[in-house]
Amino acid sequence: MKDFRAPDIRNFAVVGHASTGKTMLCEAMLYSAGRINRLGSIEQGSTVSDFHPDEKEHRMSVHVTILSAEWLGRELNILDCPGAPDFVSEPLSALRVADFALLTLSGTNGIEVGADEVWEAAESYGIPSFLVVNQLDKEHARFEEILTEAQEHFGPRVFPMTLPVDAGPGFHAVLDVMRSEVITFPSGASGKYEETPASGAELERVQELHRQLIESVAETDDELMERFFENGTLTEEELRAHVHDAVQRRLIVPVFAVSAATNVGVARLMDFIAQYGSSPVDRAKVEGISSSGKPVDVALADTETVAFVFKTMNEPHVGSLSYFRVYSGDIIVGSELVNVDRGETERMGQLYRVNGSAREPVPSLHAGDIGAAVKLRNTHSGNTLCSSSRQVTLSVVEFPPPNTHGALIAQSKSDLNKLGEGLSVLHEEDPTFHHHFDAATGQTVISGQGEMQLQIAAEELKRRFNVDVDLGEPRVAYRETIRGKGDSKYRHKKQTGGAGQFAEVWMRVESSPAGGVQFTNSLVGTNVDRVFVPSVEKGVNTACTEGVYAGFPVTDVKVDFYDGKQHPVDSKDIAFQIAGKAAFHEAFLAAKPKLMEPLMELRIKVPEDAVGAVMADLSNRRGRVMGMESEGRFEVVVAEVPQCELYKYSGQLRSLTAGRGRHREKFSRYEEMPPDLEAKVVAKHSRKSSENGG
């Protein structure tokens, strides 16, 4: 490819709800531009975008894929993004470096919740969106209804630049508003088209839309508006000269009618992108933070290099691959840049332009362009690379918190030792993937945005890191506490022939609303030397960590060590630790113990027609609805649900809402567990203790 500069570069992210044909749209673009010699297939795993093993296996996009093509003298850097909510980090990262969003909608399903999410993300980044109504070759395609929905949902500025002439099976022609023509695409999916003037009803329709387009474009400039009022219209030259500005100012949200699978309408979409789409020049300045913490502008024309790494991947036979956008200056092979976030210098080895799995070596990349570098030592997603003479950091992506959790069970100790490295790499590649060791349950817990994300993570651990793990249900971190008061007088005495052990601890416990465990002593006299108070406290803390009633940590308890006895020879630290732990056990069990379960606050965003099913499901999960909110065509249900009822909830929610529901969750509080469920948990702990000889 040529060595393009910023005015001729088009960086855009192809985003949308799952199964709206994003990858096939990108495939059709590549085919139309001559980058590939045939259209690939999702089912056959032969598309340029979905080249990773996990994508081929599951027949879905998992990673953002950078594609490149040339069209009408412009470089198209296409960022093909997954639509599944499990992999939401990918479109959020891609939109961070894109100059506009290409938002695909299903020609039968219309606007779905995934479209809302990426629309809002594009708005937050200050970039325009184009809408592409895809799959118009399907039965029950309903372009006109979806156009109306989009205008109601996204605003009256939504405007059709092309409309289908014959939506449904056999779809092969669009009505072009800019040209007032019918564009016909022959069979064979070549992407080539023929133009004929519109006539009859089609001419009347396109003339009315053309007039509306002129009115919208006239708003971009005061002088243009004056000419419009004077003449009642604009010349075609004036119209075309200002369409770009109208798009940038969101006076127009252009809509295109296509069928990516049959490559109908795609070439005209590409024409519009090349001629009127955003370039890096349209956002020539971005805000950064200087090394002194002050806001600074990073300008496209600056000579010092500033680049943002938006994605890292570890590729077989290549190693770490860092994808970045250059915001100012040039990146040259062999140059050294400072990773401001890590405080380290990175040498830029080989640089690449990328097209799926294919990489084309280049000597340099200029401001506004997107490319990749290999084997950067300590650079990860979200890092800023700069010239040493100007060190700034660019804003990072804010990712949603995890809402789905699973437990990893390693099959051997050697697998356990390798697990940490694999998990760290997966988190670097997808920042919404989290992992931690839960000391309360003794499990390695992984968390993310959906069950498919966790399943693929477990598969990747096996495939790439040779770690044999099973994915199961995480244990719930219950808490133990008491309803009343308890007392114990415990004597520990051990004689083994040599030095013995002796300690006697008198202890009271009671419920405490202050939270945690408050240890006090009210010793008087000389029955127990005060040097043993820390020993007793250590024994109590051990008991509280291990649990007394059901093997879970203790909370909301006040402990008073009020008396005891000691032996002048046999009393020692370990003896009072043992006695303190045992005394606490006895007092705790005498104080009417109970289990507390964690409650999660859920915000569930669903279409109005699915609210009833979601509410019924929440009731079955012992959930309590706290309120309802409206967000456009969607309802948000706010509820509290016990954590133990939420395993695989994201999958169930999608099933209830035909894939249109999303939820977020966060810890709310602990609440007393129902007696029947508590009994089951306690019985399970007792059986486990018996099996272990406890």
Q: Helix fraction?
A: 25-40%
Percent strand: 25-35%
**Which strand order do you get reading across the main beta sheet?**
18-17-23-14-15-22-19-20
Q: What structural category characterises the helix and strand content? A: alpha+beta
The outline comes out as elongated
Average per-residue pLDDT, rounded, comes to 94
Number of strands: 37
Cα distance spanning the termini: 70 Å
Number of helical elements: 16
Q: Are there runs of 5+ residues with pLDDT below 50, and where?
A: none
Rg result: 32 Å
Largest beta-sheet characterization: 8 strands, antiparallel
Protein architecture, described:
The chain is of the alpha+beta class and 694 residues long. A hairpin with a 3-residue loop joins strand 14 (306-315) and strand 15. Helix 6 (200-218) packs across helix 8 and helix 10 (413-429) packs across helix 11 (451-465). The chain is elongated, with a radius of gyration of 32 Å.
